[in-house]
Amino acid sequence: MGATGKPRLLEEVRQAIRLRHYSPRTEEAYVGWIRRFILFNRKRHPAEMGEVETNAFLSDLASVRHVSASTQTQALCALMFLYREVLGQKTEWIEVAVRPQRPARLPVVLTREEVRLLLGKMSGVPQLASALLYGAGLRLFECLELRVKDVDFGCGEIRVRDGKGRKDRVTMLPVALTEQLSEHLRTVRVQHRCDLDQGAGAVTLPDALVRKYPNACREWVWQWVFPASSCYFDREAQIRRRHHLHESVIQKAMKDALRRAGISKSATPHSIAAQLRDAPARVRLRHTNSTGASGSPRRSNNNDLHACIESRGARRPQSLRYPVVGCL
Fold first, then answer.
1. Across residues 179-189, what is the average pLDDT?
2. How far apart are CA 310 and CA 326, in angstroms?
3. Which of 60, 211, 269, 271 counts the highest number of beta carbons within 10 A?
């Protein structure tokens, strides 16, 4: 709060973002760019600035700091949100700002043999999570934020909640990973019971569910599929919680596996997951890996990591509209 009792500017930005239910990462990015914009202009209030200062800041990002086009666009969006939604100003002058053109990039595509070799150099939870990324086409955070209730072994499905664009979707649960994932969840459940015995065992819940269901945060169905190795103390709620596994664990494990496997491609967790979601990579894999010696399509079997969900008379999920290649 300021001296007059009015929230400070950055606090107003946070309130406006949360009012619109933007993701925490968007909030962190927007607040960061607005803070940099203010510091760049010697701590002048944005209400006192306009087109000249904005263009100078964006030009400095491109010409001096040499940021990418996507980073510059993110900074522009943050400033547009500040002036339009927080300060309530018309943004005609910022609408005509030069938007950097993001160059088209070819996706990094790993062959089946490279994926097999990569996963073979990994072990434990990072190996299971990476295989799930590849087999189910999950984004990294979609995988790490999975809860026990989102994995349906009976139907062979994984339900992604609040994915990209805050959209839900259904994807496949690879048959080849069913046994390994079941064993992993048994281990997680033992850990959860130990946490409960020690007065912990709580997780964060989306939105206001913690007020509607006060005890749900300790229920098994709401636990993370990939929990962190240690608990933390939530000062606001005054309870011990366990967060999901940090993304850097998977990223570092995959980087190390790429080095030990001798794969000279800049693959990331997003790379192996995008092969199932992105059309260019999927088409390339289908042409190179899904044909037999005679050129006829090779039929996938239940031992493949990309095992399709069988038809049950219901409409096929949107994420499975395209043929899925048999992998591994």
1. 96
2. 14
3. 269
- Per the DSSP assignment, residues forming a β-bridge with 171 are 158
Pairing of strands 169-172, 157-160: antiparallel
pLDDT tens per residue across span 231-260: 999 888 888 899 999 999 999 999 999 999
Tokens representing 298 are 């090779």
H/E run at residue 172:
strand 169-172
Domain boundaries, the chain: 9-95, 105-328
76-104, pLDDT tens digit by residue?
999 999 999 999 887 776 655 566 677 77
pLDDT at 317 over 70: no
CATH of domain 9-95: 1.10.150.130
Rounded alpha-carbon distances, angstroms, from residue 241 to 163, 197, 224, 230, 232: 23, 13, 11, 9, 5
Q: Are 140 and 133 in contact (CB under 8 A)?
A: yes
